[in-house]
Automatic annotation (TrEMBL):
SUPFAM superfamilies: PLP-dependent transferases (SSF53383). Keywords: Aminotransferase, Pyridoxal phosphate, Transferase. The keyword Transferase applies. It comes from Fodinicurvata halophila. This is Aspartate aminotransferase family protein. NCBIfam families: PRK07483.1 (NF005685). GO terms for molecular function: transaminase activity.
Length: 446
């Protein structure tokens, strides 16, 4: 019996023994093809890289830890420079933390501090979107729209205003252009700001490409430009959550570069450390950094492990691998290939309603009936079953059950490491096909 409190207490998942590239092996000798970077779009450069291992060992010989209120450290400084060098202009400083939830929690608090520094303390409300996920802490759950992860804690959460997401497959009108839909979807933000009173709203937070909740749903072209204009019009800060879709995943170093918007706060995590260490960060616009410097002069926020030297050294090595090996471009090219393979195999599949995404961040929406887009019976939990069937076929995928008009929908997210090969891409599609077929047989008998 496992002594680790597992996701499903009482069940013990296989014990992982080793991992290389996009392959993991358990202690029973089973081998898994990893189509989702360690399980959650984390291991961006694949499992194991001697350059990262060496950097970690070298840092351990120097200093593993020193509190950030006493010292800065070389890896933290170099990593900040590297992350900022490819970020939209205006982002000028980096706040480090230990993961995605801490990054979003920090961004929310920085947004709040900014308005206090600016002498507008009534600006405290946050607007976010339904069908979103921003983390597991009470603050990030408050702004998250993943209802199954939220509902037990609802009485403990603060009140955020959740607007409609940008989700073209379900919410665009059939005859509407992408551009018109983007504008219309963004209007939900303006309406929410006006309803709350712009003088009360601190920030809007959104994922450029929705990950955990909708099995990957990118905003349509133009949506975020409109969102940025609305935020500017009403003095509302824009926080972009690129915890899952950032650091190269979409074929751009940051997804917002493709959207051509500059956020005030940009959160990254997962692929930033590539799974070698737990780490996250918020890239902060100079406007905010300056307001704090010339205001109270001190962050009203901090964690023990901010700018952890060992974590920063590992993440720096990961980011250097991404840069030196041209892996952002690789993510774009491999993403195109994976997309093509998925289109060929599942483009006409009666139960695959939509294939979407950017770069190596792709999603499939599974439906009972393609034309009507009718979802499967939620009680069947298709997404969980297809994950189990994929594991049987030796394939790791990320299932999600986002809600559609209050009903459960089923999605699969694919986000392999940027080093995935052409043959491995073909193999992912082959194993996914087997898993889908097996689950459809179960669904018919249900
Ligand atoms: N934001 C997004 C977009 C995420 O996908 C996640 C994790 N799935 C988080 C925040 C939270 O990150 P973590 O689990 O590292 O706290």
């Amino acid at each position: 019996m496992t002594k680790v409190l597992q996701r499903v207490p009482g069940q013990c998942p296989p014990e992982v023994k080793s991992a290389h590239g996009v392959w993991l092996e358990d202690t029973d000798g089973n081998v898994y093809l990893d189509a989702v970077s360690g399980g959650a779009a984390v291991s961006a450069i694949g499992h194991g890289d001697s350059r990262v291992n060496d950097a970690i060992a070298a840092q351990l010989d120097q200093v593993a830890y020193a509190h950030n209120s006493f010292f800065t450290n070389r890896p933290a400084e170099e990593l900040a420079e590297l992350l900022l060098s490819e970020a939209p202009e205006g982002l000028s400083q980096v706040l480090y933390c230990s993961g995605g939830s801490e990054a979003i929690e920090s961004a929310l608090k920085l947004a709040r501090q900014y308005w206090v520094e600016k002498g507008r303390p009534q600006k405290s409300r946050i607007i976010s979107r339904r069908q979103s996920y921003h983390g597991a802490t009470l603050g990030t759950l408050s702004v998250g729209g993943n209802m199954p992860r939220r509902d037990y804690y609802a009485p403990m959460l603060f009140d955020a205003q959740l607007i409609e997401p940008c989700y073209a497959y379900r919410l665009a009108h059939p005859d509407e252009s992408e551009e018109a839909y983007g504008k219309r979807a963004a209007q939900h933000l303006e309406a929410a700001i006006l309803e709350a009173g712009a003088e009360n709203v601190a920030a809007f937070v959104a994922e450029p490409v929705v990950g955990a909740t909708l099995g990957c749903a990118p905003a349509v072209k133009g949506y975020f430009k409109e969102i940025r204009a609305i935020c500017d019009r009403h003095d509302v800060l824009l926080i972009l959550d690129e915890v899952m879709c950032g650091t190269g995943r979409t074929g751009y170093m940051y997804a917002c570069l493709e959207d051509e918007v500059t956020p005030d706060l940009l959160a990254v995590a997962k692929g930033m450390g590539g799974g070698f260490v737990p780490i996250g960060a918020v890239l902060v616009h100079e406007r905010l950094a300056e307001a704090i410097r010339s205001g109270s002069g001190a962050l009203r926020h901090g964690f023990t492990y901010m700018a952890h030297p060992l974590s920063c050294a590992a993440a720096l090595a990961v980011q250097k691998v991404i840069k030196d090996d041209g892996l952002v471009k690789a993510a774009q090219q491999k993403g195109e290939l994976l997309r093509q393979v998925l289109d060929e195999r599942f483009g006409q599949h009666p139960n695959v309603g939509d294939i979407r995404g950017r770069g190596l961040f792709l999603g499939l929406e599974l439906v009972r009936e393609r034309n009507s887009k009718q979802p499967f019976d939620p009680s069947f939990a298709f997404h969980s079953r297809v994950k189990a069937a994929a594991l049987e076929a030796g394939l790791m995928i990320y299932p999600s059950g986002g809600t559609i008009d209050g009903k459960q929908g089923d999605h699969i997210l694919l986000a392999p490491a940027y080093v995935v090969s052409e043959t491995e891409i073909e193999e992912i599609a082959e194993r996914l096909s087997q898993a889908l077929d097996a689950t459809l047989v179960e669904a018919q008998a249900y």
